[in-house]
User: Fold this.
Amino acid sequence: MTWCRRDYSLADSRTFIARCDSDWEKGERYNFAIVDPTDKILVGSVGLNRIDRAHNFAHIGYWVRRTRTGHGVATSATRLVASFGLKELGFHRLEILVPGNNAASQRVAQKAGAKFEGTLRKRLVLSDGLHDAFLYSLVPADLALPVSRSMATTAASPA
Assistant:
């Protein structure tokens, strides 16, 4: 995540949040906060970005704070946002790009039902340099279990 850097400030967060409504209304990006329903703590975020209407696809991005990883939160949120993108917004395809050295994010994509399509060499520039990326995709047939809109709203609220 290029935005995740040491100097990312509270002001940067406020700017991002202020843009979310506008981006949503324009159909440019759809971001959701992942909030623990018991303690109302922000656990992470998931969203659709890099939207390409000409080819009718988008990218899925997700992150979960380290103290909440390993509990299926990112996988559930990814499936919910995929259902939203494929069923509600009508995308034909969703893509997930994962740095080759990020095994946890690869597992999230796999557990969410995304199919591995290949390695994109030297595709991602991260804080520590250039990385290969693994490309995963989801199409409507990959979502075997229906997810209701009310369930998606409960699990992931717009950021």
